[in-house]
């Protein structure tokens, strides 16, 4: 029955209902009421994506065109690797694999948990707004024992300025600890130049200052680097949907770009939450206080950010070597124009 | 984005204007004793004194509060200084032989010191022939002649040059070369030898045309500048060090390198004098060191003073720093603890007077200034109203108490007066009295407390420009130390010759490092005080106006509780003296609490209203009820993996040594056994390992690299208690407020305890004799795990809670107990405000994430507006590890202003910084000097003074023919 049986049924597109109901319906239609199954669907690009909660179920239903092709696998024999990740780099078309169920019968199966249970260790973010010579890497350091595992050093880099080539001091990755988080991601390498730490430019800052900034952000570290090896850069212009889609006219290798003021989501705040233990009770995260008048300001700021995110991108060769002034006025947390985050961060004072 | 930034910056012009009215950064005055003094000068007419330093600073002092500071462009040692008498002008000679003329000028009624002119001697001419003009190479001595219009410069080459002072130009053609002098010297003295450098130049008090020149070889010449000839020649043969010309001009005194001095008579006709009247080696007959400077002062009462420095017997006392004062048969050898820089006497300089009548002797030493009264028998020291040697024992901590009540002030002053009995009423007061202090009487009394290495706490009057010592508290008497205080013993045991007398208070040697004071807290309303030290001692003291003899109650608190497996490897605790001990007037100890293990106390706080003292070390914290004299609480904060905490603070040096030794051992081992090394995951050793591991593989390794790793719970010293705080607030529910105690640790943990303190009966001072109870109410773990440096509770209006008794005695507005309270927790990386009693994050500012700097000191301060009399804001002032000062609004935590204050390399300066309650601060710029700075636009303490200068100003500039 698995891998061979096809059923066709209709759903009301406007009212998809809940995943639980859908799951029940599937089990009913296929007459497999007591078998744990894994539900997948093919998206418009032909990628096999999982359906396991309300959100991706709604997404699947809304993008179905016109038919939603659903794949059901028994949980114990499911080939998890078949599911494409949603990152841009690791996309694979695995549909054919899944349709040939013999493939995954051959190897002994390692049971790993659902994708939602995975913990991301790193990601490349903001690919669409950064120049291709730069890479913004996010390292997720949870309560794991694995060290971040990298070292930074002082150095100098050559930059193109209106006055010709100039040697300017910079901060570089000097060493990756074998087995550390930084090395295991493969996204950072020795001699990569560190340009920003969590959205704040490091130019003009000393090695000690950058060290302190990184450690202060170590639970959710976002480093923008200019990789020493520029050959492995992301090739953009693919079928990526949705984003601004601008392809920048990239300058010479090694020529730095005007940095886009970072639009980092401040999700880390949820990771960074302090813990309170009341009356020797159970530790719990400290909630955010009820939004007050200050949230209004935060709101306007987000709108402004959003606007500048759309319009402020300057793919120019102009070099801004002016160090980020240490003045507090030029540095504040910024966040993505994300509705959900807005709710979370309503009271955060950013200046 | 940029648009947005600009909009933000200029968002609120009103706020910007307000900020300007509230905040301004000024470094206002330097308190204490100048570091590394190198020159001294005194103007007898204006009665002002100048001190030059090795870093090129010039400081002029007059009456208390009268201070001028100048800095040479080059940081070159000031070797000599000379006042142009009565003119408020000062000629300085630097080590590079350049001369600088400084003027005290009045702007807007206030005087300032400014450099007017400078003179760089022409460099040595290319040829060096005998026929060539003598070159002005290295100036050895300067003499002002003709009321300061001309200066004679003695040089290393033996020539004397003349300089026009108002324009600082060389007077060509007047130069007196050694050849010219040698012509009047008999042949047998000449014998082909050079005269050597000019060692001394002295002017005649009544006849400005005469100059006494002393050459290194020993030749003394009275040169008549008008007649261009030698009036008299003294054929000395002993290497000359210094000269003094007696007021009448008939007697000369010369001092020599062999420790002798000679007295010459100048009245013996025109033939060269070959023999002095008297030649004596005062500390002979064994070889003596040179007498570097000698003064001769005569008195109406008969019996002249001879005052000289050095000359001590080389073998037995060659290492002493002595000034000898000899009058008739009386000889006193003043024995100082630091090197003698220079000295002068305050005496009459009016030419018509027949006698010098010296009033006082001022001796500038490397570390202090000592003034002796020469008119009172016994020559007692005159207490200095400023220039106090702050570092008489190294400063280990400091605290500032603002708005000291007048009553407490008077009691402290009187305790201080009884400590150092004031000299009799006939005695001389401070002789350096020039200038007028124009600063207003300080509106409030500020007390600066400094804790010292020797276990003393010194109380300073920090209300004004002159930092005046008030009172000194010594805690050493309570303990049995390794070596007993031997001041009195040493003096008695000394041989009676030379007649040594110990003078000055600079004493850098500590009997026992465990006595060192780590924290000081003073309750200004109850005059109770806590002094906590290096060996875990916490001493509660109370000010008493009468001496008493009583035993001190001693208790110990085990902060390790029942932790197993820890052994303390540091110092032992101090053993207190038992039985009743005599205590002089002043702060007298009541209770001694000793922490176990006896690690240095890292935090202490006092609540006099509740009679509670809380203290913390690197192992935990404790709460002690000093009314009932019993411990209330002890809590261990050690992380199980923390082993370093057991070594003790004094073994810091030891542990460095140890780790050096270890790393050497490791290197040696790695050479021998290659890679046979166990991978040690200890984060502490990672950096050490790095050095050896990385080398063979990583060619590109640079010497400086930094490890990026989040702080983990088991980092070393994570249990160090960094701050403690008492507050009356809502901890458990929103309906009832009550006493609470807060503790913050190095690893970002905050513990909040609800206290049950029996309340005092209305009107009663003391609370009933019932036990105090403490219950842990909340525990907050900051996820970034940075050390918690300060905790404060804000009331319903967002203002910090007043100090104990402040509200109940109507000295501060009562806190708003209606609105919701909030707690401000400042860590080294972030500031956060949480609501109370339900802890939820309200506002925060992540300083380190933004600026890459770490918080070193924070304080809540009130900033008053310059524009509006009664407008003030409470803000958070913060000093970072980069030496910048930031000010944040409270409770919004928005950055207001920031200034760069201390060089980031100046670690001891940053560590010593202390903020006041009204937006000022102090930090050490040298071991002996506090720089005072002000962040407030209104509350500024800076010298405002004037000087009555009789300088004819422009008239003097119109050239006035030199005294020919």
From TrEMBL, chain A:
Q: Where is this region: Disordered?
A: 232-272, 324-351
**First-listed, main subcellular location of the protein, grouped into a coarse class:** other
Q: Which terms does the UniProt entry file under GO BP? A: cell division
Q: Where is the composition biased (Acidic residues)?
A: 263-272
Query: Pfam families per the record?
Result: PB1, PDZ
Q: Which GO terms describe its cellular component?
A: bicellular tight junction; cytoplasm; plasma membrane
Start and end of every PDZ domain? 136-229
Q: Does the keyword Transmembrane helix apply?
A: no
Q: In the UniProt record, does the keyword Endoplasmic reticulum occur?
A: no
Q: Which InterPro entries match?
A: PAR6_homolog, PB1-like, PB1_dom, PB1_Par6, PDZ, PDZ_sf
* Compositionally biased intervals (Basic and acidic residues): 332-343
Cite the PB1 domain residue spans from the record: 1-75
Q: Which domain of life is it from?
A: Eukaryota
From the Swiss-Prot or TrEMBL record, state where the protein is found: Cell junction, Tight junction; Cell membrane; Cytoplasm
The entry's family comment says: Belongs to the PAR6 family.
Name-wise, this protein is Par-6 family cell polarity regulator beta
Q: What is the lineage of its organism?
A: Eukaryota, Metazoa, Chordata, Craniata, Vertebrata
TrEMBL record, chain B:
* Gene3D superfamilies to which the protein is assigned, alphabetical: YVTN repeat-like/Quinoprotein amine dehydrogenase (2.130.10.10)
User: A single GO BP annotation from the record?
Assistant: exocytosis
What SUPFAM superfamilies does the record tag this protein with?
WD40 repeat-like
Ranges occupied by WD repeats: 447-461
Q: Which UniProt keywords apply?
A: Exocytosis, Repeat, WD repeat
Lethal giant larvae homologue domain location = 280-380
Under InterPro entries, the record lists: Lethal2_giant, LLGL2, WD40/YVTN_repeat-like_dom_sf, WD40_repeat_CS, WD40_repeat_dom_sf, WD40_rpt
> Superkingdom of this entry's organism?
Eukaryota
Pfam families per the record? LLGL
Q: Does the keyword Nucleotide-binding apply?
A: no
Keyword Magnesium listed = no
Question: What is stated as this protein's family in its record?
Answer: Belongs to the WD repeat L(2)GL family.
Q: What is the recorded name of this protein?
A: LLGL scribble cell polarity complex component 1
């Amino acid at each position: 029955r698995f891998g061979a049986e096809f059923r066709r049924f209709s759903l009301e597109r406007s009212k998809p209902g809940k995943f639980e109901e859908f799951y029940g319906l599937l089990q009913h239609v296929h007459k497999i009421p007591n078998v744990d199954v894994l539900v997948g669907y093919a998206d418009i690009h032909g990628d096999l994506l999982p359906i396991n909660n309300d959100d991706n179920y709604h997404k699947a239903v809304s993008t179905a065109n016109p038919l939603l092709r659903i794949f059901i696998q028994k949980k114990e024999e499911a080939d998890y690797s078949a599911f494409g990740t949603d990152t841009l780099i690791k996309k694979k078309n695995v549909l054919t694999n899944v349709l040939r169920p013999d493939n995954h019968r051959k190897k002994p199966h390692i049971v790993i948990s659902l994708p939602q249970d995975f913990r991301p260790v790193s990601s490349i973010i903001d690919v669409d707004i950064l120049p291709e010579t730069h890479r913004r890497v996010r390292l997720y350091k949870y309560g794991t024992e694995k060290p971040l595992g990298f070292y930074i050093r002082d150095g100098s880099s050559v930059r193109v300025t209106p006055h010709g080539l100039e040697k300017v001091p910079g901060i570089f990755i000097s060493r990756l600890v074998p087995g550390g988080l930084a090395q295991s991601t493969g996204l950072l390498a020795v001699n990569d130049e560190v340009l920003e730490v969590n959205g704040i430019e490091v130019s003009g800052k000393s090695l000690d200052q950058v060290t302190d900034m990184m450690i202060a952000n170590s639970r959710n570290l976002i480093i923008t680097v200019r990789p020493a090896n520029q050959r492995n850069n992301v090739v953009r212009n693919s079928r990526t949907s949705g984003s601004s889609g601008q392809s920048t006219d990239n300058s010479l290798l090694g020529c730095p770009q005007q940095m886009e003021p970072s639009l980092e989501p401040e999700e880390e705040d949820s990771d960074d939450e302090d813990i309170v233990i009341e009356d020797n009770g159970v530790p719990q995260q400290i909630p955010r206080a009820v939004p007050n008048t200050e949230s209004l300001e935060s709101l306007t700021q987000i709108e402004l950010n959003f606007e500048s995110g759309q319009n402020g991108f300057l793919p120019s060769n102009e070099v801004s070597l002016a160090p980020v002034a240490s003045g507090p006025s030029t540095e504040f947390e910024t966040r993505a124009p994300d509705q959900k985050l807005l709710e979370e961060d309503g009271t955060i004072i950013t200046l | 984005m940029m648009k947005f930034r600009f909009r933000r910056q200029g968002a609120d012009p009103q706020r910007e204007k307000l900020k300007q009215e509230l905040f301004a950064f000024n470094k206002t005055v330097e308190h204490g004793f100048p570091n590394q003094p190198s020159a001294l000068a005194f103007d007898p007419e204006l009665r002002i004194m100048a001190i030059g330093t090795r870093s090129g600073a010039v400081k002029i002092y007059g009456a208390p509060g009268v201070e001028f500071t100048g800095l040479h462009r080059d940081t070159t040692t000031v070797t000599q200084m000379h006042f142009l008498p009565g003119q408020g002008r000062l000629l300085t000679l630097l080590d590079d032989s350049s001369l600088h003329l400084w003027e005290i000028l009045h702007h807007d009624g206030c005087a300032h010191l400014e450099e007017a002119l400078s003179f760089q001697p022409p460099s040595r001419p290319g040829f060096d022939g005998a026929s060539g003009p003598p070159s002005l190479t290295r100036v050895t001595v300067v003499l002002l002649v003709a009321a300061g219009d001309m200066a004679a410069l003695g040089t290393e080459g033996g020539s004397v040059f003349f300089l026009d002072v108002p324009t600082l130009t060389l007077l060509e053609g007047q130069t007196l070369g050694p050849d010219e002098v040698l012509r009047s010297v008999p042949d047998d003295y000449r014998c082909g030898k050079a005269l050597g450098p000019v060692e001394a130049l002295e002017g005649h008090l009544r006849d400005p045309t005469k100059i006494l020149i002393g050459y290194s070889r020993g030749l003394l010449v009275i040169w008549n500048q008008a007649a261009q000839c030698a009036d008299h020649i003294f054929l000395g043969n002993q290497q000359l060090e210094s000269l003094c010309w007696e007021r009448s001009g008939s007697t000369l005194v010369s001092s020599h390198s062999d420790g002798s001095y000679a007295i010459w008579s100048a009245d013996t006709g025109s033939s060269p004098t070959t023999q002095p009247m008297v030649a004596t080696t005062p500390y002979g007959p064994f070889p003596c060191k040179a007498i570097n400077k000698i003064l001769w002062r005569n008195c109406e009462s008969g019996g002249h003073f001879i005052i000289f420095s050095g000359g001590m017997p080389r073998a037995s006392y060659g290492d002493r720093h002595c000034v000898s004062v000899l009058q008739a048969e009386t000889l006193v050898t003043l024995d100082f603890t630091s090197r003698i820089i220079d000295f002068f006497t305050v005496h009459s300089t009016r030419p018509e007077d027949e006698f010098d009548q010296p009033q006082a002797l001022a001796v500038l030493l490397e570390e202090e200034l000592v003034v002796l009264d020469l008119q009172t028998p016994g020559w007692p020291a005159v207490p200095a109203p400023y220039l106090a040697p702050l570092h008489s024992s190294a400063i280990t901590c400091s605290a500032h108490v603002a708005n000291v009540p007048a009553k407490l002030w008077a009691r402290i002053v009187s305790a201080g007066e009884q400590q150092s009995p004031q000299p009799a009423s006939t005695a001389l007061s401070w002789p350096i009295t020039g200038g007028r202090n124009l600063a207003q009487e300080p509106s409030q009394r500020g007390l600066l407390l400094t804790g010292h290495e020797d276990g003393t706490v010194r109380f300073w009057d920090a209300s004004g420009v002159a930092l005046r010592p008030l009172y000194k508290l010594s805690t050493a008497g309570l303990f049995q130390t390794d070596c007993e205080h031997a001041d009195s013993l040493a003096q008695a045991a000394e041989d009676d010759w030379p007649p040594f007398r110990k003078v000055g208070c600079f004493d850098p040697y500590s009997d026992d490092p465990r006595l060192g004071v780590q924290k000081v807290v003073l309750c200004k309303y109850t005059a109770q005080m806590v002094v906590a030290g290096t060996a875990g001692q916490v001493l509660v003291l109370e000010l008493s106006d009468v001496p008493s003899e009583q035993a001190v109650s001693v208790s110990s608190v085990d902060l390790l509780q029942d932790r197993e497996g820890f052994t303390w490897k540091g110092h032992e605790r101090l053993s207190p003296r038992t039985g009743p001990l005599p205590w002089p007037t002043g702060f007298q100890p009541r209770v001694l609490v000793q922490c176990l293990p006896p690690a240095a106390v890292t935090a202490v706080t006092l609540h006099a209203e509740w009679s509670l003292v809380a203290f913390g070390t690197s192992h935990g914290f404790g709460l002690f009820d000093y009314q009932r004299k019993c411990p209330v609480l002890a809590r261990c904060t050690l992380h199980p993996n923390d082993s370093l905490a057991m070594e003790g603070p004094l073994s810091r040096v030891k542990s460095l040594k140890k780790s050096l030794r270890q790393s050497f051992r490791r290197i040696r081992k790695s050479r021998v056994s290659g890679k046979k090394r166990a991978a040690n995951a200890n984060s502490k050793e990672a950096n050490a390992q790095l050095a050896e591991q990385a080398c063979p593989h990583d060619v590109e390794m640079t010497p400086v690299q930094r490890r990026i790793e989040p702080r983990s719970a088991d980092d070393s010293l994570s249990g160090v208690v960094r701050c403690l705080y008492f507050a009356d607030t809502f901890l458990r529910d929103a309906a009832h407020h009550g006493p609470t105690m807060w503790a913050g640790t190095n690893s970002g943990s905050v513990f909040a305890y609800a206290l049950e303190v029996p309340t005092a009966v209305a009107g009663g001072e003391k609370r009933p004799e019932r036990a105090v109870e403490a219950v842990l109410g909340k525990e907050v773990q900051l996820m970034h795990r940075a050390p918690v440096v300060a905790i404060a509770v804000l009331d319903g209006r967002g203002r910090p809670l007043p100090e104990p008794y402040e509200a109940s005695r109507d000295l501060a507005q009562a806190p708003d107990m209606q609105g919701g309270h909030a707690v401000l927790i400042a860590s080294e990386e972030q500031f956060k405000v949480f609501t109370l009693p339900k802890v939820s994050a309200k506002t925060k500012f992540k300083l380190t994430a933004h600026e890459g700097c770490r918080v070193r000191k924070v304080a809540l301060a009130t900033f008053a507006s310059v524009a509006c009399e009664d407008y003030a804001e409470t803000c958070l002032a913060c000093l970072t590890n980069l030496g910048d000062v930031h000010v944040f609004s409270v409770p919004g935590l928005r950055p207001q202003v920031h200034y760069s204050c201390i060089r980031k390399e100046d670690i001891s300066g940053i560590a010593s910084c202390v903020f006041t309650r009204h937006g000022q601060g102090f930090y050490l710029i040298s071991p002996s000097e506090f720089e005072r700075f002000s962040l407030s636009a209104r509350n500024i303490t800076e010298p405002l003074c004037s000087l009555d200068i009789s300088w004819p100003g422009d008239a003097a500039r119109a050239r006035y023919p030199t005294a020919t």
